[in-house]
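Good morning,

Attaching, inline, the backbone tokens for the sequence recovery test we're adding to the shared suite. The designed sequence is right after.
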């Protein structure tokens, strides 16, 4: 685990040798990281410590509305949520691997994964959304519940406008593993072979 202090990067002691796949943090200094073999780490007071969230499956994505309301996703459709200090497995409508999770509140959380899987949580239950693709999806990000982007295999990029997901031509067939949307209308996607893409609505 590396930390940037506005001038340089430095290594932190994660207290694990398991592979780590995602990290999410808050302005108050709290952060969470997830990875292989059930690894979920919490940063509190500058120290990382392991959390026991259940079965030792691989976790690929983490997002939280607050440090006390975290969502972790992974192998076989696994979705784990924290609340009041306890971690519980949520009912998942898919058995596909879930690679990424992102949200805007505890009533608007989205997840993306293998075989075009996109899920939405409305505060009560997770439901499947029609992505219109069978491609594996590796990341989801956005500006609002009505303005979301997903990226994945073979150059797949999808956009959600609040009503439906649609394909956005990326101009590449390289796998795309990350997507990030900015408030000025720009969207960035990155992937294989040094690929960096930028989309602008302006």
């Amino acid at each position: 685990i590396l930390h940037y202090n506005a001038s340089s990067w430095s290594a932190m002691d994660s207290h694990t040798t398991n592979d780590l796949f995602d990290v999410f943090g808050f302005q108050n200094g709290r952060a969470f990281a997830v990875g292989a073999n059930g690894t979920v780490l919490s940063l509190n007071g500058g120290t990382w410590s392991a959390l026991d969230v259940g079965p030792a499956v691989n976790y690929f994505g983490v997002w939280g509305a607050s440090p006390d309301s975290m969502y972790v996703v992974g192998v076989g459709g696994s979705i784990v949520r924290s609340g009041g200090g306890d971690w519980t497995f949520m009912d998942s409508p898919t058995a596909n691997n879930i690679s990424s999770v992102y949200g805007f509140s505890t009533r608007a959380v989205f997840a993306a994964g293998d075989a075009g899987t996109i899920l939405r949580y409305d505060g009560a239950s997770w439901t499947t959304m029609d992505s219109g693709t069978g491609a594996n999806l590796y990341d989801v990000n956005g500006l609002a519940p009505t303005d979301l982007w997903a990226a994945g295999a073979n150059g797949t990029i999808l956009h959600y406008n609040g009503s439906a997901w649609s394909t956005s031509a990326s101009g590449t067939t390289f796998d795309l593993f990350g997507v990030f949307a900015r408030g000025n209308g720009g969207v960035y996607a990155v992937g294989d072979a040094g690929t960096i893409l930028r989309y602008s609505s302006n």
